[in-house]
Amino acid sequence: MDNLTLYIGNKNYSSWSFRPWIAMEATGIPFEEILIPFDFPAGNPRIREISPTGRVPVLLHGSLRVWESLSIIDYVSELYPEAGLWPRDRAQRAVARSVSMEMLSGFRALRGACPMNIRRERGKIALADGVMADVLRIETIFRELRGRSGGPFLFGGFSAVDAMFAPVVSRFDTYDLVTASDTLSYMSALKAHPAWLKWEAAARAEPWIVSDDEV
């Protein structure tokens, strides 16, 4: 099998890169990482050399390019079914994909007001309309899924859904958005995962600053 190469952006800011990276790292899928930093005002022109959209993440597998976080996760789950990224049960897999798509396409108020910024000092900010509605919906998803699975993650063991919501957990923590004990319990489990800790340490060591994401 050809090696997998995952192109990502700054670990401090790139929520889209975080998703496939933690999915693969946490489940033992082997890959090479290449980071192209957003160190220009309008990004980095090098990204267009490897990405058809001019954005990261992008996965290279031989001559194949796969882009968009969820597509990458889905592709590697087919290459490595033993990684268990999606539930085996068909009904549970449908739910997992539904909430993953909801994360992919929704929660724009939260994402716009609270960009991922791992290095930012933890603290509240003034919130735009709609942010707390997004937060409450996400907490409901967490509560329902962990209530059915028993935790510690959303479907029991770490899965693609945890990867899709990892940047939201970072936002909840950075901007001090939640107080419910069950939400904090899930956040603690995810933030203690070795893959999370590895990403976080690298993010905190990065030298680049993207002013648009410094709220």
Automatic annotation (TrEMBL):
Reported EC number(s) for this entry are 2.5.1.18
- Provide the GO MF annotations for this entry: glutathione transferase activity
The broad enzyme category this protein falls into is transferase
Query: Which residue ranges does the record assign to the GST N-terminal domain?
Result: 4-84
**Origin superkingdom:** Bacteria
Q: Which CDD domains match?
A: GST_C_3, GST_N_1
Show the SUPFAM superfamilies listed in the entry: GST C-terminal domain-like, Thioredoxin-like
Stored PANTHER family: GLUTATHIONE S-TRANSFERASE OMEGA, PTHR43968
Protein name per UniProt = Glutathione S-transferase
Per the UniProt record, the source organism is Rhizobium mongolense
Q: What is the lineage of its organism?
A: Bacteria, Pseudomonadati, Pseudomonadota, Alphaproteobacteria, Hyphomicrobiales
